[in-house]
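Input/output pair, single chain:
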Amino acid sequence: MEFDLTKLLRTNILNLVPYSSARDEYKGEASVFLDANENSFGSPLNKNYNRYPDPLQMAVKTKLSTIKGVPPQNIFLGNGSDEAIDILFRAFCRPGIDNVIVLPPTYGMYEVSANINDVTLKKILLTPDYQLDMEAIAEAIDENTKMIFVCSPNNPTGNSIMREDIETLIANFGGLVVVDEAYINYSRQKTFIQELTEYSNLVVLQTLSKAWGLAGIRLGMAFASEEIIEVFNKVKPPYNINEATQELALEALNNVDQVNEWIRETIRQREMVIAEMIELPFVIEIVPSDANFIMVKTTDARGLYVYLVENGIITRDRSKVQLCEGAIRITIGTPEENVLLINTLKAYSTAK
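Output:
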């Protein structure tokens, strides 16, 4: 199906004249800035943050470009992936008219953003082995379906979605296919970023919150065609990424080797935890994981969750989520944390 961005956009967004900041209008070199009503004296800090930051974060995008292998103009930066998700709803979905498809069990912010923006959510359950129900998705699509969200590796299950199925969706759907790759650094599958030149309706979400260890600075990424990135930039607040975050991100992006070593160690630890846990009598199944967490199906998820909390270990009880009955989600910790987890689980087994 042919993709037409102008038909997909809300009319008011298509015609929107974005706010033009002082830094947008000015190009070149200057020594005196009297344009933006900033405090010219500085900041009450060791470093001055009295000037507005680069509204398009070009230094960070240029650095990311070398790491990700895509041009800066194909990158949007947001306050976490959540900002990119919200902008997609606001730009492409008419409140009370349009709908999007999500594939539960999956990341909860798609539903929250849909509800905030008064957009109907069509939920098509994954299959029992947590893959796409392609026939049901096809039946759910109508003329007002604007987006399909695919989380791969999926949260909370941890498995990757079959690449061929995602490609089939992108190739045959006239709206946007949003592939959320928050956990892609831990996956055996390759990113969909390299497919951007082939698919004009593809949006790929990633984050610095997981493998990069920067959850505290809230920096998410969206990769898409230049046309779609221009839409993001029209809708976002003028200075959506603050100067301190941009500086910290640039510093962190110089440490790729450290991040890669953490990824390798996390995967080693994940396999160790799985090998230990699968032997426990209350563990029914551990879903194969391509992420930095595992979903464990147990005989008593709530009891296990409470026991771990009582012993100072916080996990995520997912047992009330459809297709995740009896399951808890456990993040892979440091080697020391993982040993403590396993010993506590063994003590629970003995107590039972």
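The chain has a mean pLDDT of 96. The radius of gyration is 22 Å.
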